[in-house]
Amino acid sequence: MDDHAALRLRDVVVRRHGHDGAPLLLLDRVDWTVRAGEQWVVLGPNGAGKSTLLRLAAGGMQPSSGSVHVLGARVGRVDLRDLRERIGIVDAATARALRPSLTGHEVALTGIFGSVALQRRRLRPVHDERVRRALRLVGAESLADRRFEDASQGERQRLLLARALVGRGGDGPELLLLDEPAAGLDLPSRERLVGALAVSAAARPDLPTVTVTHHLEEIPPTTTHALLLRAGRVVDAGPVAATLRSDPVGACFGLPVDVARTSGRWRAQVSVDAWHLLDGAG
Ligand SMILES: Nc1ncnc2c1ncn2[C@@H]1O[C@H](COP(=O)(O)OP(=O)(O)OP(=O)(O)O)[C@@H](O)[C@H]1O
Ligand SMILES: [Mg+2]
Predict the structure, then answer these.
(1) The overall pTM is greater than 0.90
(2) Ligand 1 atom nearest residue 45's Cα
(3) Which among 26, 47, 111, 169 is placed 20 to 30 Å from 143, CA to CA?
């Protein structure tokens, strides 16, 4: 079964050195498997290692020890370009690397080959049709001609999601990785994005997805699993019913937290009598 996992991390350690030369463990003995049909959310305080985990999952870096398998191949022994074309990714680094003068349509087109450049010579009319479908899916049809630099933050995030969803093949990507897709969005934009994520999950229920977020309110209702990370270690991981609860989420953030789920959506808050603990938390 595990051989068919979209993502498999075994005993993964990522080690770096701080400015004083002291060793830093960005990830510490992480075991994690993501299978088809699973939609994961990754939660954890700033610096917990969430983006590092996503970079590993995208094949963009190798662990110091342990193994990472992505879409059946071991990272380090697979052509990264091929992998990139099979993975849809939304993250700040991609957003920064895209040419600001690209139109919304062109931004989504770059997703066909998973690069930030357009690769015009490889593009075919069928790719334009696929882009139009992806823009429609995330409610960004009206942004097709808008320059990326002119788009609002929320519009940009929707374009990046469309870009991540187009994929090389007719069926779109085989793995979707989203690092804080709702960062910086106001309430209507966030809700539109969460709605777009839910719509895309309904359109491709088999598509394994990992969404990193800071706010439980941003978790799409279609989410099936959660991984809680603290200081590079997995605090808890598993189906959302067991994981997105007050105790594990509180342990993850080092605070007493009340987690509630209403109408399929989650929210978390620190109770007033624990506010005095906030200064030392995180
Ligand atoms: N090359 C590096 N050398 C040293 N430390 C690094 C390096 N890259 C990342 N780090 C540190 O590793 C930790 C984890 O970083 P990461 O970006 O994965 O955290 P994160 O959970 O995504 O945080 P945030 O919520 O703020 O985005 C941070 O403390 C970061 O400063
Ligand atoms: Mg991060």
Answers:
(1) yes
(2) 25
(3) 169
Interval 195-210: pLDDT, tens: 989 998 998 999 999 9
Q: Which atom of ligand 1 is nearest to the CA of 232?
A: 14
Q: Which residues of the chain have pLDDT under 50?
A: 1
Ligand 1 mutation target, pool 41, 52, 212, most atoms within 8 A of CB:
52
Contact 229, 238 (CB under 8 A): no
| Ligand 1 centroid – CA 35 distance (Å) | 26
Among protein residues, the one with the nearest Cα to ligand 1's atom 2 is: 16
| Nearest listed ligand to the Cα of residue 30 | 1
Q: String of b and e for 4-36 (b: at least 16 CB within 10 Å)? A: ebbbbbeebebeeeeeeeeeeebbbebebbbbe
Q: Which H or E run includes 252?
A: helix 246-253
H or E element: which one contains 196? helix 187-203
- Select from 259, 254, 257, 251 the least CA-distant residue to 273: 257
**DSSP 8-class letter at 126:** H
Strands (DSSP E) along 18-147, which ranges?
23-34, 39-43, 65-70, 73-74, 87-90
Check the CA dihedral 111-114-116-120 and report its sign.
negative
Question: 170: closest CA among 133, 202, 144, 138?
Answer: 133
To test the pocket of ligand 1, the residue of 12, 13, 26 to mutate (highest count of ligand atoms within 8 Å of its CB) is 26
Residues with CB under 6 A from ligand 1: 16, 24, 26, 44, 46-52
